[in-house]
């Protein structure tokens, strides 16, 4: 699964169950921006209309769990994209961690923690 940096950030935010408004409420800007301006700014980052600065990435990382290495790799030209889940964009280096522990890969592009990820039994023809 190849994502742009903005798509990766959006997918990780959504996997955390957070809206753009939730993230905008939890981050600080200097000078202080109104929440509607922060929401618009985050939407531009997630749609790749505006690149995220290093400081922005640090602030976002404090609110949304994502793999900094994956973000760097997705931002680099000519580098092979990392393996990511098509649903939540978790990676091998940063798996989902839930009640049952870290997720595992059940197919080339899906982790065991995502909805619809139950492994098929041999009776299903798998």
UniProtKB/TrEMBL annotation:
One of its GO terms (molecular function) is DNA binding. It comes from the Bacteria. InterPro entries: Cro/C1-type_HTH, Lambda_DNA-bd_dom_sf. This is Uncharacterized protein. It comes from Sphingomonas aurantiaca.
């Amino acid at each position: 699964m190849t994502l742009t940096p903005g798509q990766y950030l959006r997918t990780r935010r959504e996997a955390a169950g957070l809206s753009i408004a939730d993230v905008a409420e939890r981050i600080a800007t200097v000078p202080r921006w109104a929440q509607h301006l922060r929401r618009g700014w985050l939407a531009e980052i997630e749609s790749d209309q505006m690149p995220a600065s290093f400081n922005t990435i640090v602030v976002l990382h404090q609110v949304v769990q994502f793999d900094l290495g994956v973000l760097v790799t997705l931002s680099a030209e000519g580098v092979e994209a990392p393996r990511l889940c098509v649903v939540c964009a978790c990676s091998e280096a940063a798996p989902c961690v839930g009640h049952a522990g870290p997720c595992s890969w059940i197919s080339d592009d899906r982790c065991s923690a995502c909805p619809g990820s139950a492994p098929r039994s041999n009776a299903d023809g798998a």
